[in-house]
Write a structure and sequence with these properties.
The protein is of the alpha/beta class and about 325 residues long. The chain is about 40% helix and about 15% strand. The relative contact order is 0.12.
Length: about 325
């Protein structure tokens, strides 16, 4: 059995962003970072296109399936499918604040029901041998004190076998703020997460929210077990190219941006032959040359609907010719 790397760094599950195309692309940048799917609700898996929601390439591993739901039986069935499909972990979303998710009685609103969360997690654990984890906020609405967070984690840990908690260090405001505003307006309270780790040293605690650099990740790792990075990993993925060396002690040769693209191209060609439109893959690499001369032209070319419609991978090479790859300087 393959030994999995520790969760020192993970890429956050992001709806419409962390699909299998992005995950394959990011794997060209880091070998060890944990990757998470978009949140998939249990109904989509149980009653929808299972292949669409569960398919992934083995190269993506370690990879976790994030589920949204609040029915223990449905979650258990989906967890079993996750293990059968080869996922390394299944994660329960208790952090999404959107009203659409709340209408399904899952996401961040479940923080008000820690006993139910524990029941859901245990139902999944009873069906699988892979880790079952939970991602949540530090509180909801106007409840802002640390004791609320501690009570939630203590209850879930006591009544389930869950030992891995991924904590977005902001409150979730369930009414009045959009999901985007919920990622920016509620203040970050990193000390709450540090305090949580100190109170429960036996638990594996990852911190999430507002983290954009490996230097920040290293600082957080002085207090917690792991760090989860979200939007920066999407908009400026190459900023994490040193993650394997700095966080995992793996000093393999660091690829340049050009080499990352070249490694991604065979996958693009394979997917095009399978009938996948080029735009589904090109949109995930717009940030590869962030900060380089010509990056704006790169993004413009790869966003040109008329060029993308031709589904010709040559477009990526033509766009590459317009940028100056300064990877050596930026990766050092």
């Amino acid at each position: 059995m393959t030994t999995l790397p520790p969760r020192r760094l993970a890429i956050a599950p992001m709806l419409d962003w962390t699909d299998r195309f992005y995950r394959y692309f990011f794997r060209q940048i880091s070998r060890h970072t944990w990757l998470y799917t978009e949140m998939v609700n249990t109904g989509a898996i149980l009653h929808g296109d299972r292949e669409r929601f569960l398919r992934f390439d083995p190269l993506e591993q370690p990879v976790a399936l994030q589920l949204g739901g609040s029915d223990p039986a449905d979650l258990a069935r989906c967890a079993r499918l996750a293990e059968q499909w080869g996922y390394d972990e299944v994660n329960l979303n208790v952090g999404c604040p959107s009203e659409r998710v709340q209408s399904g009685s899952f996401g961040a609103c479940l923080m008000a029901e820690p006993a139910l969360v524990a029941e859901c997690l245990q139902a999944m654990q009873d069906q699988v041998s892979i880790p079952v984890t939970v991602k949540h906020r530090i509180g909801i609405n106007e409840v802002e004190h640390y004791d609320y967070l501690r009570h939630f984690v203590e209850t879930v840990a006591r009544h389930s076998q869950t030992t891995v908690f991924i904590v977005h260090a902001r409150n979730a405001i369930l009414k009045g703020l959009s999901p985007k505003e919920n990622r920016e307006i509620p203040p970050l309270k990193y000390p709450y997460v540090y305090q949580l780790k100190a109170a429960f040293p036996e638990l594996e605690i990852l911190i999430n929210g507002g983290i954009t650099t490996l230097a920040q990740a290293e600082a957080h790792l002085q207090h917690v077990d792991g760090v989860m990075i979200g939007r920066e990993a999407y908009h400026n993925p190459y900023a994490l190219v040193q993650a394997d060396a700095r966080l995992y002690g793996d000093n393999h040769p660091v690829p340049t941006r050009t080499e990352v693209l070249q490694a991604f191209l065979p996958f693009v060609e394979q997917e095009l032959q399978a009938g996948v439109p080029l735009k589904f893959m090109a949109r995930h690499i717009l940030g590869l040359f962030q900060g380089c001369f010509g990056a704006r032209v790169w993004r413009r070319m790869l966003s040109d609907a008329s060029r993308l419609k031709a589904n010709d991978p040559q477009l990526l090479l033509e766009a590459l010719a317009q940028v100056v790859d300064d990877s050596i300087a930026s990766a050092s």
